[in-house]
Amino acid sequence: MATQEAQQGPLLAALIVIPFGQKYISWFGLLALLAIAVLSFVGKWYQQNIQPRSAKKQVSKSPGAHPAISKNRVIIAIVILLVLIFSKYFYMASMTSYFTFYLIDRFGVSVQHSQIYLFVFLASVAAGTILGGPLGDRYGRKLIIWVSILGAAPFTLLLPHMNLPVTIILSVLIGLIISSAFSAILVYATELIPGKVGMVAGLFFGFAFGMGGIGSAVLGSLADKTSIEHVFSICAYLPLIGIITGFLPNIEGKRS
User: Fold this and answer.
1) What is the mean pLDDT of residues 235-242?
2) Helix 71-107 to helix 228-235 angle, to the nearest 10 degrees?
């Protein structure tokens, strides 16, 4: 899950911090204050306009799991989704934390250019995250999860063996494909356990952030013992875990 700060950070570092120095970082605080003001306004507007409408339209439902699926199958499905989150965010940790070092070490690019390439990857992640929602609505969440995780595998397996231009192209494709999974996974989980939106969101967002943090630490330790290129070669196989998506139950009807 690339946040806005994560997307903008490499670009700002490349265009401002590296050429002019760290003293200009303090100016970014003004943007943060502006963002706080905007979000406060949006929050008040949401409370006054959206929440009352949602409350009126809400239909009382049983808080239990999907009626056609047993409790044990729901638990297994949740575990499968968490394993998919693990594969996605461990791979994302290798890219967000070490892609710049990989480019510098393998291709000898400058720090400034490596930050720009990282921004390009994160921008594709943002685009893929946005696309994942409507694509899941159109074609079904399970299909999007399958395509998003397993579909990225050919590109991740190729990336460690390509030259610089192809590496950047592959990173964009990987970002677009693999990032579309999270919104589909989250909605699929809420459909498995209706009425537990807060619990599902907390579980998956927390697990995703946790896997990202643990992944950065584990991969960093591995890179110290081996090399950055070795880390990318190993992480390339993580999206193959997406094959277990086939064990998820079908909870959606046919789509036109």
Assistant:
1) 95
2) 150
